[in-house]
Amino acid sequence: MLTTADKRAAFKKLHESGCFIIPNPFDVGSAKALQHLGFKAVASTSAGFAWAIAKADNRVTVDDVCDHLAAISAAVDIPVNADFEDGFAHEADKVGVNVARAVKTGIAGLSIEDFTGDNSKPLFERELAIDRIRAARQAIDADNSGVLLTGRCEAFLRGVKDMKLVIDRLTAYAEAGADVLYAPGISTPEEISTVVKAVAPRPVNLLVGAAGPSLKIAGDLGVRRISVGAALARTAWAGFMKASKEMAEQGTFAEFANGYPGGELNKMFS
After folding, report:
1. Partner residues linked to 135 by β-bridges
2. What ranges do the domains of the chain cover?
3. Most buried residue among 82, 116, 235, 253 by CB atoms closer than 10 A?
4. pLDDT tens profile 116-149
């Protein structure tokens, strides 16, 4: 097994050139499967993990998440990036305390978003949002951990499609210490290239869900990292719910024919 320091060094190296996919497992088994398939790093998903423990997205606790991150980090021999939501606090100093705790789980990176949790006023005030990134940076650097910090501007994802605001925030987050910048919800080539150019040379993470550019196209636009959020979890739940509804509503079992072979799963986890 690689050491935590090895994983963090490898994660940093991945961000130096090219474009890579960082898929989002929702439990230890899915994380190990993604490693088996050859992915060089994985990232947690707040929604996927929440559903796996029968909670809604944004309803998990910092205790839940830190236990989850520690379990995944210990299970795989590749770097783990944490979806650390809003840092599980509003105040910058409390975000710093929670980030320091997350660093101890063995992760190689984490993201802090500026979503307030209130759809009527979705973004933290600009200065507070910057202070929160700065506090996360200080917590990461306190023990020279080498964890990469991603600053997320949630504007597009929350219906605030203001590119000037997004660029202003992302560049401010970079100045406050974010290593990677992320604006989930941008999707067109124009939006993507605008963000990439605005924050260069800092790397950009792109969220791709049901549709989006290929790895090659995203790389040509200057994207460094592609994550898929809760898409893998939703896909897994789709198969489960379709088969379960067939049993409940029709009393038949035809959907089981689409299941992944148990023997192959046993080989993968042996």
Report:
1. none
2. 4-229, 231-270
3. 82
4. 999 999 999 999 999 999 999 999 999 899 999 9
